[in-house]
Design goal:
The relative contact order is 0.10. With 327 residues, this protein is mostly helical. 84% of the residues lie in helices and 0% in strands. The model has no long low-confidence stretch (mean pLDDT 83). The protein has helices at residues 6-14, 20-34, 39-44, 52-64, 67-124, 130-163, 167-178, 183-205, 209-219, 223-240, 243-247, 254-266, 269-326. It starts with 5 loop residues before the first helix and ends with a helix. It has 13 helices and no strands.
């Protein structure tokens, strides 16, 4: 927009990048452009930095001459996705810190404090309180079987990892993710938001609809949704349109199906999909905010309950000691 050619713009961008891998990729893109490659061709050589969706949008912009508009659309598309991920990540920081601190406190109390009280009780030849006996029973169990439990957990993780290395295993994992309480619906909303926003952006840029659906499937982070999109594309090539194949799969919620129907009938598919994207984005953000706001108090209550249990055990032990000494 300022009149710089794209290679000069990339040179300016490179000087501001701290990440070495991205800095090197941008430098190579600028060099390839100067050597005669189109921007989309140069970017496609670095898929870790420039996704197929990004490269295809740039390629269409090269043909239509709307490079500035296309880059702004992609910037908005990427920024929204990054903003959602950042919200979830920031919301998880506090519960993780609380959890780690609570585990450390509990480990110190169980390892050093409680055994000293047990030794003192044994020297006084008196019975331990019920709460303290329960705590020591848990401690003894973890001491005896903790290592085996840890090894078993690691074994389950390894088995799960091996099972999800195959394409079918990844599909089953993603299918399970969609069935999770609370989180499953948020995943669906997020996937459909990205799908609707991609359709709106690329359709407005002039990309053919079957190719748009392919790019949506390739960029999907859930294989169930990706496979559903490929099924839609297959029926679309058979003349079924967009909304009719979507209506056959429960993955596609009613709003996107009805709006796709309206967009096909009026020829304003980009506008209707943009409306769908805004609606799903708002709903996904609201549900994510509710879930993340619940994590902190629930984590605090669980950790506080564990610490309170240990504290009660210690206090009852001290009263027992004082009673034994008084006698």
């Amino acid at each position: 927009e300022s009149g710089f050619d794209i290679a000069a713009s990339l040179d300016l961008l490179e000087s501001q990048i701290d990440n070495r891998a991205l800095k090197r990729a941008v430098a190579e893109v600028a060099r390839d452009i100067r050597n005669g490659l189109k921007p989309s061709q140069a970017m496609s050589k670095h898929p870790m930095a420039f996704s197929p969706l990004y490269c295809r949008t740039v390629a269409v912009a090269e043909e239509t001459g709307n490079m500035e508009k296309a880059l702004r659309q992609m910037a908005e598309h990427i920024e929204k996705g990054a903003d959602t991920a950042s919200k979830v990540r920031n919301a998880m920081i506090y519960p993780i810190i609380v959890f780690v601190l609570a585990i450390l406190v509990i480990a110190v109390m169980v390892t050093f404090v409680v055994p000293s009280f047990e030794t003192l009780y044994e020297s006084l030849d008196t019975d331990l309180p019920l709460v303290t006996r329960a705590l020591l029973g848990v401690t003894d169990f973890l001491t005896s079987w903790g290592l085996y439990m840890l090894l078993g957990l690691l074994g389950l993780v390894v088995v799960a990892y091996l099972l999800t290395r195959s394409e079918d295993g990844k599909y089953q994992r993603d299918k399970l993710m969609l069935r999770l309480p609370l989180f499953g619906h948020v995943i669906i909303l997020s996937e459909l938001y990205r799908c609707a926003h991609t359709i709106s952006t690329l359709f407005r840029a002039g990309v053919p609809l079957p190719e748009i659906i392919t790019l949506c499937a390739d960029s999907s982070q859930n294989r169930v949704v990706g496979r559903a999109l490929m099924d839609v594309r297959q029926e679309m090539l058979q003349g079924q349109g967009l909304s009719r194949p979507m209506a056959k799969n429960p993955v596609f919620l009613p709003l996107i199906v009805h709006m796709a129907t309206g967009g096909e009938n009026t020829g304003n598919l980009d506008t209707t999909m943009d409306t769908v994207a805004q609606s799903y984005e708002m709903e996904a953000n609201e549900r994510t905010s509710i879930i993340t706001s619940m994590i902190a108090p629930v984590t605090t209550l669980l950790m506080g309950g564990m610490v309170a249990f240990i504290a009660i055990a210690l206090v009852s032990t001290m009263y027992g000691i004082m009673g034994a000494v008084g006698e």
